[in-house]
Fold this protein.
Amino acid sequence: MKHLCCSKFLTLLLFLTTSLLASLGDKSAIIYYAKNISYPMVGIHDYIVINPENTNTKTHGFSVYRHKIYARISVNVNELEKITQKQMQEGYENFFLDIQESAADKKELVKFIKSFHEQYPHNKLIVNGKFDIFDAVSSYINAVIFDVEMDTKSRKQKIKKAKSLGLDVIQIEYAPIMQNETTQANINEAIHAGVIPYVTNHTFDNYGISSKNAIKREVFTLIDESIHDRSVLSAHQHGAVVFEYLGYIQKLYDVNKGLPDIDGMKHYAGVVIWLSRDYESPKKLIEWVLALQKEGIKVAFASSFGLNVDGILLKQLGIDMYDGDTAISNKKTIIQRDEMIGFEIEPSLSAQSIYLNPSNSKALLTYEDTNKLRSVPSAITPWGGYAIAESFMLELNDENIWIIDPFKFFAEALRLEKLPVPDVTTQNGNRLLFTHIDGDGIMNYVESNPNRFSGDMILEEILKPYKIPHSVSIIGAEVMNEGLYPEISDKLITLTQKMYSLENVEAATHTFTHPFIWSKIKNGNLDEKYRLKVKNYNFSLHNELGGSLAYINQELVRNDKRKAKTVFWSGDCAPMEDVLEYTYKNNILNINGGYTVISNANPWLTNVSPLGLERGEYYQIYTGARNENIYTNYWFGPFWGFKKVVQTFQLTNSPRRYKPINVNYHHYSGSKTGSLNALKYIFDWALQQDVMPIFTSEYIPKVMDFYTVSMARENDSWFVEGMRDLKTLRIEEQNAGVDLDKSSSALGLKHFENHTYISLDNSVKHTIKIDKSESYNKRSYLVSSNAKAIEHTYAPKNQTISFEGHVDLKLSFYLPQACTLDVTPKSYKTLVSGNNISFEFTNTKKAVVHALCR
């Protein structure tokens, strides 16, 4: 069949997206057979049909949406048993039986379907509508897929029959078959008829259109990894946090792989070109940008144009370029500036030999020199925007300082839709608090008492008195008998067992030999000079990660409910893709890395790291702040220096909350009085804040969710799916509201500075209606809690929430006069402030609150 013209397909998709008569409550489907599936693009759908040969089942996105992913199987009927068993071993639960066989195979197909259902009653099947077997298998399948290219009369009869049997019907339309208006009419007719429409191309490698469609959350970012790894590039270190705060996901792409086909770009919210050196083929780059422009994909140039600037090439972008006077006597004067300019520092107006003048654009900064020549180094243009040289960022004393407001610039240049942001920093209105200890130095002797280990001091002075959750790792080579210190190993094992026996401690590994530079792992081996040297040790990823966790769980942890499942990266904290792949394949959580060290002395946004880093299809999760090694000048002192991390916590909370409170340190902090007192100071401060204490293993999946959450919108209502561990949406408005009666999974909301945090229950998907009328104040709702909501039932004027936390409960509700609360147990004191009522419990970590409004 004729392949779909891509530009026509995009035009049709844009047209249909604004024309369908569907609602967020309608079922929808997507069929995508290409590689590198975008879960933010597919997650909202009820049926996600994929090609198992092109899909990685070990990713977080697959695990979140597995219950509604269907693996397409197109084989002979007699091969079905074998193929489905193989795919189930890979992790698939549900299948689309796309059998292209003759009518003679109907009996065998029916037989297989019945047998499959008997063996796996909770797994789901879709069948191809080509076979008229619905009567025989309607009790064993969930849906039928019909191709619009089937005979019209036969198709309509079969659809009617399938619907009469209670089956969902998915009808595939191919966009080039008819004109836009006709296709739209067909789809709307299908929706009214109770059929799930899907419009795509014949190769199923585009994200097509169905009854509801995902908001594009991914921002394609072109980088150059020829000299430096992506983890240290400015695009990642300084750009990703901006997009994440806006609710978007940065997708890095190395330009040395070649510019990608426009075909595969249509699902991106925009493109950022952030190259650290000039691209070798400037003409190709400009042609690629122009091709994106034709498809309606906006482009932002960051820091530079990424090419050897050529007036002829820039002219194609509507920018006139001419040479300026670089003489010292030629002074510049700003004659126009947008509010975006001067975000952290004023532009330097350094001597530039190139002057720019964009047409049909909104200038963000304009200066004029002594010769009356003007230049516009940053602008919003019809195709996107640019901010280069003295209008973008200033490097001063090894600090990178934003000149332009990156939040406003990228949002406006790329025309990004304002989203309710899946927020990893907050739950139930409170800022999250977690702490994790890297394993180094558990065996260090205490300076004030050489008879004790530093780990002893951490146990007695931190873990026991501060009864919040602590995540504690060890380095196997420092503790185990076959490690570096066999003469004291028994004592260290006993010490570690004491730590892990505490109710408020979970175990983790800091690896076995503490690799110093992860990129030096070659062919599965790491030379001794890049790790701790242990006699008779054979390096392997299993021994470092899975094996060390197994030892911890078998020999050190006695609590089956809190088995170790997390690795805290060691050394440079820069695992490569193969290492991350090992952790995902073995269900190991990971954290460490990033460089969040913002302080009063250096209060720049570039000192706040992103949430994590993607390599291949896997994410490394970063910490919320750096550890004491950085704050103590790499342990040269002052040893009380870690106190300054409180400044980091304050500056990552206001004016924008970028991070939870994450107290990350090493066992060796217990060896010195100054460092131990610093820890006490930090924890004392943290516990005075409005926080929800959690284990580190509870935080990591929230970040993983962020990268796969899928969203759709209908007017003021938002459909959000994939919030398995994430439980908060943030709106960047001071007094935003929610229609709680039409948002049944919303527990409540909390206003903090210029933000509104919407608290969600344990549902994986949510429909939230934004309401600016403040009607939400007519009924009671949760304002904040330091514990999770483990159960939630809602009916009009009636709500029950069950809470369970790690510390004594503190609950706060908004309570209008027409409402009452019944709280159990009764071991609490009550605090009232206006319409807010708070309950502070004693020796209680579980409670149930029932709200009733007249």
Q: What stands out?
A: The longest strand covers residues 430-438. DSSP finds 21 helices and 47 strands in the chain.
